[in-house]
User: Which sequence fits this backbone?
């Protein structure tokens, strides 16, 4: 049973390996079958891994002599990553994407995020997150995002090394107990703030990367936005939970940064000229709330942050992938009439990213707000709420364009630059499924937030 | 005359007389059904295939019947209301996010019951007035039903998280309705964004108020029953109170938060304007009642003079703006703000009488505001012009619409035999001593608004038709029914505020004023002045 808990990870790696085989030379008929059934098999494998995770993951235990722990946090984070990956693969239009394309990288990135979620060692957390972020950044097919992510990861590694030296070891438990009663001195505050700030920057840069990268495929952008954010977010929550004892040293600074991120993201979403950029800024703005949740450094706040991270990651992957190549002013016009399922999923995801009630994003933001108020960060809360208001205006633009703007209302190209007019049954059904997942996240907010709350307890206490 | 109207307010007695028709059905999830039935039907409409608009009439018809059903349930709640029981009724309480102290807690007191009834009537009128919608019909009715559900939800909420959720959720469908179906395509997008700005900012401020209230009260709960009795320090109550006033003011279009009202109420089609004026704006008044008067007693006492002044300033400003404009729809938009000022003045009065009036004006004011914007929208649509200079002599050509416009005009300023008159009477009698300047200013605003109404009626209805004006077309039956429904309700509220009685027994209707009285008596006991010492000892 102990080793069976790692079955989801093994399934993920095996699926990733299998997708590499799709790049082989096949006859035309076989190639068509692979194109048709390959992504569906990947979705099935991811859902199977998710099912295994939810079934086996509840087994709380420590594996491999303390190297990996399967606690509530790991269960929640890994389930969120698998759900986001499944949503991304299902929502992508595989008639337009190449196979295997960025599938192996996406699955590898998901594996990295899962490793980070289970690790009990500072450097294993870093390594898992680095794998997730690097794999996700590579899907953009551009040098700059990889270089920026690499530089930030190096910065984080330096700060973790400082922490290792201060605590006398790299174990999370050791760091937790060593910093439990540490005075908030400048030499301690600075590296901790830089390390957490670096992770926060990686978290927010994940969705921003795809917004500025035109070369990537829609699926690649979705993976970069969601899986990259999941890797960075898991690491941030985990390290933040460990450092909660020394929070007076870094919490106000992180709260200020978070409020700035939410505000700037919301402001950008209002003025962004293209839907792609709007979606990326909405995701970045909501991830700012996750950073704010870490700044609260208490169980309710961290639990709310984890809940929100799950919602944001799924919505960001879905929105980015579903947007596909639609871009430019008015490109979304008439989408609601042409592809209602896709338009609905896109709009629901965008509204959730803007924390519009009653979607999952609103629940998460409310819970984080409540914790911020409890922690006394009223100024950060006010600024962040202002950012969310602006974000709502950005999301309203997407909703308006998709459902209420007629094609003749705009001079923009009427359709996406794709040759196909209607989606396949699979992508249509997948869009509806993604909508249901996003709505289900708010409908089942009770068990999900309860699980996240327990996960935060595991973060703070180590068991 | 005045004493006759005051006699309409019954004195609670220890032996309640059962209303004929009450106790017909027992229903455990009455409020949830009222809130979620429109959402469920909206989801059905959103997924029904509609090739080439074949089922557009089905969307209209089914939305009408669903809303009628919801109104029927609200009416059942109204006649089954136990007027002599303290506290909320039809309660539903389930743990929702227990780790965070959030419960799915719905409940209705007398005021909520009345507002639910008003929402049902106003939404029904909005749907009837929307029969002319021909573009994106499915989306229109889906959004209309979602807006109805959100407003009903915030009225039923007894948990502040649930209240905030529905309060903010009401913004989205209304913004999309204005943006998608505004009269002037060039301006509707800006109008929608403006509404989003004001109402979104109001939601943000309400969220801050709720968080501050919960954080200072402790107890890890958002339940209103607990927070209302938390006994917060006066300073905290004032801060929370200010935030609540700002949030409510953004909906009620109180000066200086009135910027959206003119554009939305004057540019939206009749159905949307009726919904915004009758249901959306009234939610601001309800919030004042529920959060300020019922939960923050010290804060209310301290903020009352400012609140009364705001009511007065808004009434005067709107009256003057209505008097000045040459556009019939803008005139209607400004007049629709006036009943909200009476509600605010009543909430600021903090006497049993003024609170009774404020609660009653939530119903009467909602109907009057919806009627006046609806009537002005229909006049502009049928006369093919909005210019008061071109309009004239419509009384002979459109007699039914003319009567409805007259009723709208007299209803909004509170003439006798209308529901607003009863509310104004109670509010002014209850608040004149406490907030003299605010009451005087509001009365002055009503006088100016009355002058604007007189000018409107004189210009539109009487005199010779303007030869330069386009030919007026007849009003469709559904639009007449929509306005007649509102006008009939307004008169009914004014004529029998205590409900009809057969042989001294209430018949079918327990009387709006009795239902309100039951809840207000409990609430107002906090504000009642201490009894004078007996015997001068």
Assistant:
């Amino acid at each position: 049973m102990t080793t069976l808990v790692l079955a989801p990870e093994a399934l993920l790696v095996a699926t990733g390996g299998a997708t590499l085989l799709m790049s082989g030379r096949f006859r035309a008929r076989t190639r068509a079958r692979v194109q048709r059934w390959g992504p569906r098999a990947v979705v099935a494998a991811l859902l199977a891994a998710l099912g295994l995770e939810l079934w086996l993951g509840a087994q709380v235990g420590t594996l491999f002599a303390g190297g990996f722990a399967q606690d509530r946090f790991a269960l929640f984070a890994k389930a969120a990553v698998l759900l986001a990956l499944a949503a991304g693969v299902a929502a992508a239009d595989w008639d337009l994407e190449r196979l295997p394309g960025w599938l192996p990288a996406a699955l590898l990135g998901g594996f990295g995020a899962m490793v980070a979620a289970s690790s009990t060692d500072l450097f294993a957390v870093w390594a898992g997150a680095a794998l997730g972020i690097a794999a996700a950044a590579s899907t953009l097919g551009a040098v700059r995002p990889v270089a920026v992510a690499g530089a930030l990861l190096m910065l984080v590694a330096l700060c973790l090394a400082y922490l290792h030296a201060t605590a006398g070891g790299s174990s999370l438990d050791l760091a937790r107990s060593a910093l439990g009663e540490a005075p908030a001195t400048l030499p301690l505050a600075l590296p901790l703030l830089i390390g957490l700030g670096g992770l926060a920057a990686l978290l927010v840069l994940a969705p921003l990367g795809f917004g500025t990268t035109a070369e990537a495929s829609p699926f690649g952008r979705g993976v970069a936005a969601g899986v990259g954010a999941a890797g960075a977010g898991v690491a941030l929550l985990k390290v933040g939970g460990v450092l909660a004892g020394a929070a007076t040293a870094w919490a106000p600074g992180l709260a200020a940064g978070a409020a700035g991120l939410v505000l700037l993201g919301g402001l950008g979403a209002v003025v962004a000229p293209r839907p792609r950029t709007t979606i990326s800024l909405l995701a970045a703005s909501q991830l700012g709330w996750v950073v704010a949740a870490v700044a609260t450094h208490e169980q309710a706040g961290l639990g709310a942050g984890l809940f929100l991270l799950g919602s944001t990651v799924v919505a960001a992957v879905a929105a980015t992938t579903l947007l596909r190549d639609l871009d430019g002013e008015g490109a979304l016009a008439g989408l609601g009439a042409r592809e209602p399922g896709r338009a609905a999923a896109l709009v629901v995801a965008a509204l959730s990213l803007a924390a519009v009630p009653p979607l999952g994003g609103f629940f998460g933001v409310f819970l984080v707000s409540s914790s911020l108020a409890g922690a006394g960060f009223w100024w950060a809360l006010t600024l962040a709420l202002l950012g969310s208001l602006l974000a709502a205006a950005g999301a309203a633009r997407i909703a308006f364009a998709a459902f209420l703007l007629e094609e003749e209302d705009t001079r923009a190209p009427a359709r996406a630059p794709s040759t196909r007019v209607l989606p396949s049954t699979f992508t249509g059904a997948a869009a509806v499924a993604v909508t249901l997942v996003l709505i289900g996240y708010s409908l089942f907010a009770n068990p999900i937030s309860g699980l996240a709350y327990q996960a935060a307890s595991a973060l703070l206490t180590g068991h | 005359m005045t004493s006759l109207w005051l006699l309409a307010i019954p004195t609670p007695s220890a032996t309640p007389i059962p209303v004929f028709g009450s106790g017909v059905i027992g229903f455990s999830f009455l409020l949830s059904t009222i809130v979620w039935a429109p959402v469920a039907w909206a989801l059905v409409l959103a997924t029904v295939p509609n090739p080439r608009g074949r089922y557009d009439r089905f969307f209209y018809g089914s939305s009408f019947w669903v809303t009628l059903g919801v109104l029927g349930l609200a009416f059942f709640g109204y006649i089954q209301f136990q007027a002599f029981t303290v506290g909320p009724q039809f309660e539903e309480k389930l743990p929702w996010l227990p780790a965070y102290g959030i419960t799915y807690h719905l409940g209705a007191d007398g005021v909520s019951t009345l507002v639910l009834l008003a929402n049902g009537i106003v939404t029904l009128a909005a749907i009837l007035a929307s029969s002319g919608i021909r573009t994106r019909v499915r989306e229109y009715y889906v959004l209309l039903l979602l807006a109805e559900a959100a407003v009903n939800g915030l009225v039923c909420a007894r948990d502040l998280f649930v209240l905030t959720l529905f309060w903010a959720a009401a913004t989205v469908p209304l913004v999309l309705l204005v943006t998608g179906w505004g009269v002037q395509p060039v301006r509707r997008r800006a109008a929608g964004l403006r509404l989003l700005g004001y109402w979104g900012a109001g939601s943000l401020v309400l969220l801050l108020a709720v968080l501050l209230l919960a954080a200072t009260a402790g107890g890890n709960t958002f339940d209103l029953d607990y927070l209302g009795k938390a006994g917060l320090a006066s300073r905290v109550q004032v801060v929370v109170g200010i935030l609540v006033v700002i949030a409510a003011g953004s909906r009620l279009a109180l000066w200086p938060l009135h910027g959206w009202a003119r554009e939305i109420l004057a540019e939206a089609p009749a159905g949307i304007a009726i919904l915004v004026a009758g249901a959306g704006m009234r939610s601001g008044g309800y919030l004042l009642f529920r959060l300020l008067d019922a939960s923050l007693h010290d804060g209310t006492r301290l903020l009352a003079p400012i609140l009364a002044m705001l009511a007065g300033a808004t009434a005067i400003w709107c009256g003057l703006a209505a008097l000045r404009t040459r556009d019939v729809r803008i005139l209607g938009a400004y007049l629709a703000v006036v009943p909200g000022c009476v509600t605010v003045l009543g909430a600021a009065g903090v006497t049993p009488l003024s609170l009774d009036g404020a609660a009653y004006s939530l119903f009467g004011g909602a109907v009057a505001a919806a009627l006046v914007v609806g009537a002005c929208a229909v006049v502009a649509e049928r006369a093919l012009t909005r210019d008061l200079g071109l309009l004239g002599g419509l009384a002979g050509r459109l007699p039914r619409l003319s009567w409805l416009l007259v009723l709208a005009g007299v209803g909004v300023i509170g003439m006798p035999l209308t529901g607003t008159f009863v509310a104004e009477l109670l509010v002014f009698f209850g608040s004149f001593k406490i907030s003299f300047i605010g009451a005087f200013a509001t009365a002055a605003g009503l006088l100016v608004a009355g002058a604007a109404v007189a000018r409107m009626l004189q210009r539109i209805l009487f005199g010779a038709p303007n030869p330069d004006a386009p030919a007026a077309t007849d009003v469709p039956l559904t639009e007449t029914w929509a306005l007649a429904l509102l006008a009939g309700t307004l008169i009914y509220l004014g004529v029998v505020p205590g409900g009809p009685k057969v042989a001294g027994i209430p018949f079918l209707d327990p009387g709006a004023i009795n239902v309100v009285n039951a809840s207000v008596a409990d609430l107002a006991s906090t504000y009642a002045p201490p009894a004078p010492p007996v015997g001068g000892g």
Notes: Strands of chain A lie at 61-63, 68-70. Residues 3-461 of chain A form one domain. Chain A has a mean pLDDT of 81. Chain A touches chain B at residues 300, 303-304, 336, 344, 351, 356-358, 362-363, 366-367, 369-370, 373-374, 378, 381-382, 385-386, 388-389, 392-393, 396, 399-400, 403-404, 445-446, 449-450, 453 (CB under 8 Å).
